[in-house]
Amino acid sequence: MMTSAAQVPDTVDPHRHVFAEPLALALDAGAARARSRRRTVAYVVAAIVLLAVLGVRFRGDAASRLSGVPAPHWHWLAACAGSTALFYVANGVSLRSASGLRMPLRTVTAVQLAAAATNRIVPAGLGAIAVHLRFLQRRGMTRPAALAAIASVKGAGAIGHLVGLAIVAGTLNGSGIGTAVVSPMRSTVEDLGAGPTMLACVVVGALATGTIAHPRVRVIIRPAARVFRGHLSVLAHSPCRAASLLVSQAGTRLFQILALASAVWAFGASVSLMSVATVYLVGSLVAGAAPTAGGVGALEPALAFGLTAAGGSAGTMLAAVLVYRVISFWLPVVPGALALAGLRRSGNL
After folding, report:
1. Which of 222, 230, 238, 295 is most buried, most CB within 10 Å of its CB?
2. Is 19 helix (H, G, I), strand (E, B) or coil?
């Protein structure tokens, strides 16, 4: 009599905690495709509404600042688009390295586009995490193992960001860029007042603490923490995977810096690449505290003020930042929505 999979001892497969048995489909294929289409339409509509609100909100201020700005050079805009595409490829390499799964680069890049499209309407990167988690689970990984892989990508990204800040520290000292980047957030806090700001911090802290302390959350976190420790051990004993993860995450920062620099140079500004790198690394770190999806409304003024302090004119730098955000942040929503629908049809999500 054959032994069932549930009766096989844990010692038979040392990776049993990483991969789960494939799950049977519970929905009819036609119904699943219909639901996928509805969700895709909902994502696109939400993105269009958000763009319309932002356009109406900042139209007057942007028009006054952008008067007299020269037309951009299209070859630099193409370079910005190319750097943005390489950013998504590098993120795909990171996910493949962290998971240890053999996956086509085209598929993992499509997952990054789908995650980006979802992330435009969900704050704090939760949309991307949900897409990555679903994708890895569909590939056979258990939830704790998938969470550990995603956490290792985030950790490698944080290491790359800190290394980048250390490299540009010399440019930051005495340039006034740091003060300029922080000034929009500081002025917002001053306008709100100390009382409302402290109250908001207390509320956010209480919500975070309550979420972590919730029994259901602890049930998910505990096995994920155990698997994460094992995951780090595997990476430590796999130098090629660890190096690929760190280098690809450093590449994501580099490609974003190149995209921003290309947008700046498209308008004829003579800001150095090191100054652009300083503005991006500090600005994205500061804007990460904003509760909006992708730092919308926080990153744009931080980058514009920082680039102006680095030597660009105010109107030109605002135009460069807006073009950079359109190319690197908003335009990928369209291929991302298509990738999301395709991944659902193929059963990868």
Report:
1. 295
2. strand
Give the Cα separation of 146 and 248 in Å (integer): 19
pLDDT in tens, 57-115: 555 555 555 556 677 899 999 999 999 999 999 999 999 999 989 899 999 999 999 99
Is residue 19 a part of any domain in this protein? no
154: which 2 tokens?
Answer: 């985030």
How far is residue 125's CA from residue 130's CA, in Å, rounded to a whole number?
Answer: 9
Instruction: Please indicate, yes or no, if residue 259 is contained in any of the structural domains.
Output: yes
Token duo for residue 296: 């919308």
Contact 313, 71 (CB under 8 A): no
SS3 312: coil
Give mean pLDDT, residues 234-260. Answer: 94
Residue 15 lies in a domain: no
Residue 148, domain extent: 29-345
Residue 161: band (very low, low, confident or very high) from pLDDT cuts 50, 70, 90: very high
CB-based contacts of 55: which residues, under 8 Å, 6+ apart?
none
> Angle CA(311)–CA(79)–CA(116) in degrees, nearest 5?
100
Q: What SS3 class is residue 203? A: helix
Angstrom distance (rounded) from CA 98 to CA 284: 23
Number of residues that this document lists for the chain: 349
**Three-class secondary structure of residue 214 per DSSP:** coil
CA geometry: angle 168, 173, 178, nearest 5 deg: 80
Residue 22 and residue 2: Cα distance in Å, rounded?
20
Q: Total structural domains in the chain?
A: 1
CA distances from 280 to 271, 287, 302, 321 (A): 13, 10, 9, 11
pLDDT band at 136; cut points 50, 70, 90: very high
Quote the CA–CA distance of 165 and 281 in Å, as a whole number.
6
Q: What is the pLDDT of residue 3?
A: 45
82 belongs to a structural domain: yes
